[in-house]
UniProtKB/TrEMBL annotation:
PANTHER family: CADHERIN-87A, PROTOCADHERIN ALPHA-C1. InterPro entries: Cadherin-like_dom, Cadherin-like_sf, Cadherin_CS, Cadherin_N, Protocadherin/Cadherin-CA. This is PCDC1 protein. GO terms for biological process: homophilic cell adhesion via plasma membrane adhesion molecules. It comes from Spizaetus tyrannus (black hawk-eagle).
């Protein structure tokens, strides 16, 4: 699971490094499908992988000195993450140094003050040149421009580091030459070599002939990385054999000490105490500084010593949780063991302080599974149900093994996506619908409703009628149902007298894939309306003629003349019939039973009774409003059935005694009689 490559710094963009698919034994054709990703802690992406061939190439030239500073070995670590299935491979790139940096001196020129009375053999420390390259590409030797008074010698400190010294080989005479201009050249061991020059100006003095000397050439100290400002690191001490101001020493950091270290530490100019001056924000376990001791002579002399400070780690870094890969949402039917996320947990502290334990709450259907070093996989450990819980806040707790331990938490929101695992559900298996006959077309009958706990299209319910027949016709010719809300409408008017009840099924189906469905049985009961008048079955008339019944002339009282028989196609009270005598030529002769429709005589027949009678019978139901029918019955008083039935179209009644003509005659006769009586009376009076 690991491959190591070597690459020279400053390699141009696009240069081939290797074939990661071939080197790791991976099928290059699957790289894109498995969503490969290169993960690194570096701020830049220095390498590219061709998704088709697996070829590894340079994406951006590497500056080794900028990337690794003064480290002897410069390494870049990458992780290659592949999904489906999840695999993690490590790649290590060794960045090889090339001679791309020339030696450089901290200052543009150096000044050395030398008393003129110095004897040959006097030594003066020259500045070290800095070369960011490593190994043979770093500074290898120094040369000095020819001069009869000076030559160059290399010296070695106690830690093995070398530095140049300017050695006086001939006594100086300030009166003959007060200033000597030399050129110090630093040369590295590259191919071809590179070099750098710096002027060294020697001023000849005639005082202060002793330089301070440190007790040790190298000082060593150790402090905690969280030491507060003002903590004493070490106290250096140097002596100067001169007296007076020429023997007074001031301590300072050499110009070759990096500026960030000079800000981190403070050296007391008189006591030589080195103390912490700020936060020790360094990642290097060993810090190197040069301390200079200079006397207070008119032309101060100086010497240097090296200070090595070892930084002791304390548990001051908490674990860092990085979400490398996260799959959210996940389907609710994901099987246990499905990988949801890949986590990287790193603690910058070394040793036990950097070891980390990781956990999540126990009451969740998830668990953390260790993967490669510092990596964990978050997987499902149980079944998921979006309808119960639609998402989880998973708190990841990482704790290091330091004392006291430091804990870091990070919360992941994992959303559960819906699958179509719930069919629509009706509130009941059946329902009853009551509708009156003669309903208008398109009348609303009922609304069925089913619920589906799924979401989106999986929970969107549509309704339809299941194919069936009603009274020999298709159900669709009777009813329609709204696809969206389940409202049921009538497509025709129902007739109670033809169809009193029927049932059908409405199917509710969701829009999932595959779709799930459920059905409800709807029982339709048609209620009656009073839309049918009673039908007279007996007696019947033909061609508009009156039905005739023959009754003996001397029939007794309560003689059954006829029985009116009627029927009503309606139901219940709409079909309850009552019989009424609307008209009779002789109201004293006949009576009608209101419930049975029997027409009987109310008395015995007399010889003076008319031979023809006509009655009108009304048959009325009990609907609201009631409907009625009438029948006219002609009654003939005869002992035998006549050969020809008389005409009953007239009233069948004797003419009235006082009609209009008779009244006129009576009035005229009364007037004539009165006039005659008055005349007779007048004659009688005249005679008398």
């Amino acid at each position: 699971g690991q491959v190591v490559y070597s690459i020279a710094e400053e390699t141009e963009r696009g240069a081939s490094v290797g074939n990661i698919a071939k080197d790791l034994g991976i099928d290059a054709a699957t790289l894109s499908a498995r969503k490969f990703r290169m993960i690194t802690g570096s701020s830049k992406q220095y390498f590219n992988i061709n998704a088709s061939t697996g070829a590894l190439s340079v994406n951006e030239p590497i500056d080794r000195e900028q990337l690794c500073e003064l480290k002897s070995a410069c390494l870049l670590n990458y992780e290659l993450v592949l999904e489906n299935p999840l695999d993690l491979y490590r790649m290590e790139f060794k960045v090889l140094d090339i001679n791309d940096n020339s030696p450089s001196f901290p200052l543009s020129e150096y000044h050395i003050n030398m008393p003129e009375f110095l004897s040959p053999g006097a030594r003066f420390t020259l500045p070290n040149a800095q070369d960011l390259d490593e190994g043979t590409n770093s500074v290898q030797n120094y040369t000095l421009s020819p001069d009869e008074h000076f030559h160059l010698e290399m010296q070695t400190r106690g830690d093995g580091s070398k530095y140049p010294e300017l050695v006086l080989k001939k006594a100086l005479d300030r009166e003959q030459q007060a200033t000597h201009r030399l050129v110090l050249t630093a040369k590295d061991g590259g191919d071809p070599p590179k070099s750098s020059d710096v002027p060294v100006i020697v001023t000849v003095l005639d005082t202060n002939d002793n330089a301070p000397e440190f007790e040790h050439s190298v000082y060593r100290a150790s402090i905690l990385e969280n030491s507060p400002s003002g903590t004493l690191v070490v106290q250096v001490h140097a002596t100067d054999l001169d007296e007076g101001p020429n023997g007074e020493i001031r301590y300072s950091f050499s110009n070759t000490t990096s500026a960030d270290l000079q800000q981190m530490f403070f050296i007391h100019p008189h006591t030589g105490e080195v103390t912490v001056n700020g936060v020790l924000a360094v990642q290097r376990p060993l810090l190197e500084m040069l301390i200079e001791a200079r006397d207070n002579g008119a032309f101060g002399m100086s010497s240097t010593a090296k200070l090595l400070v070892e930084i002791t780690d304390v548990n001051n870094h908490g674990p860092e949780i990085t979400i490398t890969s996260l799959s959210s949402p996940i389907p609710e039917d994901a099987v246990p063991g499905t990988v949801i996320a890949l986590l990287s947990i790193l603690d910058k502290d070394p040793g036990e302080n950097g070891k980390v334990t990781c956990q999540i709450p126990d009451n969740l259907p998830f668990q953390l599974k260790p993967s490669l070093e510092n990596y964990y996989s978050l997987i499902t450990s149980g079944l998921l149900d979006r309808e119960l819980i639609s998402g989880y806040n998973i708190t990841i707790t990482a704790t290091d093994l330091g004392s006291p331990p430091i804990t870091t938490q990070k919360t992941l929101w994992v959303q559960i996506s819906d699958v179509n695992d719930n069919p629509p559900v009706f509130g009941a298996d059946t329902c009853d619908v009551f509708v009156e006959e003669n309903n208008p077309l398109g009348a609303f009958l009922y609304q069925v409703s089913a619920s589906d706990p799924d979401m989106g299209e999986n929970g969107r319910v549509s309704y339809m009628l299941r194919n069936s027949t009603v009274a020999g016709s298709t159900l669709a010719s009777f009813l329609s149902v709204s696809l969206a809300n389940g409202s049921i409408y009538a497509k025709r008017a129902f007739d109670f007298e033809q169809l009193r009840s029927f049932y059908f099924q409405v199917e509710a189906k969701d829009n999932g894939s595959p779709a799930l469905s459920a059905a409800i049985t709807v029982n339709v009961y048609i209620s009656d309306q009073n839309d049918n008048a009673p039908a007279i079955l007996y007696p019947t008339s033909q061609n508009g003629s009156v039905a005739v019944e023959v009754v003996p002339r001397l029939a007794d009282e309560d003689y059954l003349v006829t029985k009116v028989v009627a029927d009503d196609e309606d139901n219940a009270q709409n079909a309850w019939l009552s019989y009424h005598l609307a008209h009779s030529s002789d109201s004293t002769l006949f009576r009608l039973a209101p419930h049975s429709g029997e027409l009987r005589t109310t008395r015995s027949m007399r010889s003076t009774d008319f031979l023809k009678h006509k009655v009108v019978v009304v048959v009325r139901d009990h609907g609201d409003p009631p409907l009625s029918s009438t029948v006219t019955v002609g009654i003939l008083l005869a002992d035998t059935l006549p050969q020809a039935l008389p005409d009953f179209d007239d009233s069948g009644e004797p003419p009235p005694l006082l009609n209009t003509t008779n009244i006129y005659l009576i009035v005229s006769l009364a007037c004539v009689s009165c006039i005659f009586a008055a005349f007779l009376l007048f004659l009688a009076i005249v005679r008398l």
